[in-house]
Amino acid sequence: MTPLDIGIVAIVALLVLILLGMQIGIAMLAVSLAAVASIRNETVALRMIGSVANDSLNSYLFAVVPLFVLMGLLVTQSGVGKDTFAVFERLMRRVRAGLGVATVFANAVFAAITGVSIASATVFSRVAVPEMRRHGYTGKFATGVVAGSSVLGMLIPPSLLMIVYAVLAEESVGRMFLAGVGPGLLLALVFSATIFLLAWRQPGFVFEPDARAAASAHISGLDIMRKSTPIIALVLVVLGGLYGGIFNPTEAGAAGAAGALIIALMRRSLTLPRFWHLMVEAGRITVSVLFLIMAATFFSRMLAMSGLPRQLADLLLSGPIGPYGFLLLYLALIIVLGFIIDSISIMLIVLPIALPVAEAAGFDLIWFGVMTVIAVEIGLLTPPFGLSVYTIKTALQDETIPVGTIFRGALPFVGAMFVALAILVMFPGIATWLARL
């Protein structure tokens, strides 16, 4: 077999192992080790895996992963998400379907300090859904809004997916964070427009028939200031320090984790056993992410050795489909994979193959990364995998709202994400202008 044939067989074998239930990192290491041994020999394969482990993880940059993960866990523990929703609920109380819009923007702000979609889905399913139901919104709409807006957590910085992409594409983490700001705001606006359109054209989808809205709890201006101060302060410390050039990404993560710890202690929401549990959880998440990055780096080098990415670039870009035909096929593949595989795994499998093709096509890799993250996040809302949907179902513990209802409620927001992708294809500067300053 030629190296090209071995590369193709390796990809097929990887997909088969994943579908059979093998862990993605272990599957990538096993397939890559066997493929390199077949292309060269066992000695080269064993030496390469040691080299990859050292080269891919021996960097100060990777301290950003545990720091941002810990910050997100501490913020969730401190109850900041509940206060953020209360502030936006008060600001949007006179707007038709205003609670839906409040959920979107509260989630956007919450995303700016957590970076994890599942955290947003967990918090707002407990905070926003009961409140919207109390005000006469349907369960389908309430859960759909929370599911849809939870994806902002992986787009608005700091974002774990942005960090993973930056490492695989060898781009600056700071620039990737900057690139997420414009598209994140765009997606929040498209979601809000979707809510207004649903309330106008399909009120039965949004509101319960003959439902009377409950009175909103009175929140004074002083309460709004008190509830919003912690999250504003944290956003200013992390994003202001990062974009102002005061911190690099790792330092911004450390400042954010320290700030989140101070907030949790001041609110007396953190006991010593709970803090230990959060530290252990942050360690588990970090180790799993770094192990996956190491496995993906080995997989990428194996593919480069096989020559498959170069051959694929020549085939796709010289054929009739052209660069944007490749982009359409790439996004479609990611969305389909999202039906069955989680977000990080999709990026680790596809990007080592797609990045050389995207670079050969002349695409801006920062813009390409934003498009990738949005397409990957669509998988969080679509069956059968739909991780955000199942997270909401688990957190709600409400038997009157089945999983199918949540999927139907999220469907308009899946359409909104396709609209956002189309806008970014037509106007790539939305993603790149801030990152290229």
State the gist of this model:
The chain has 437 residues and is mostly helical.
The H/E string reads HHHHHHHHHHHHHHHHHHHHH
Overall structural class, as computed from helix and strand content, comes to: mainly alpha
Query: How many angstroms separate the termini?
Result: 48 Å
Oligomer: single chain
Strand content: under 5%
What is the overall silhouette? globular
Largest sheet: none
Tell me about this structure.
78% of the residues lie in helices and 0% in strands. It is mainly alpha-helical. The longest helix is centred in the middle third of the chain and has 35 residues, at 272-306. The chain has one domain (3-432). The radius of gyration is 22 Å and the shape is globular. The protein has 21 helices and no strands. Helix 9 (160-169) packs across helix 18. The mean pLDDT is 81. The protein has helices spanning 3-19, 24-39, 42-57, 64-78, 80-91, 98-114, 117-134, 139-150, 160-169, 173-201, 203-206, 221-243, 249-266, 272-306, 308-318, 322-337, 343-360, 365-378, 387-396, 403-426, 429-432. It starts with a helix and ends in a 5-residue tail after the last helix.
Layout of secondary structure:
Layout: H1 3-19, H2 24-39, H3 42-57, H4 64-78, H5 80-91, H6 98-114, H7 117-134, H8 139-150, H9 160-169, H10 173-201, H11 203-206, H12 221-243, H13 249-266, H14 272-306, H15 308-318, H16 322-337, H17 343-360, H18 365-378, H19 387-396, H20 403-426, H21 429-432
Helix pairs in contact: 1-2, 1-14, 2-3, 2-14, 3-14, 4-13, 4-14, 5-6, 5-12, 6-7, 6-8, 6-10, 6-12, 7-8, 7-19, 8-20, 9-10, 9-17, 9-18, 10-18, 10-20, 12-13, 14-17, 15-17, 16-17, 16-18, 17-18, 18-20, 19-20
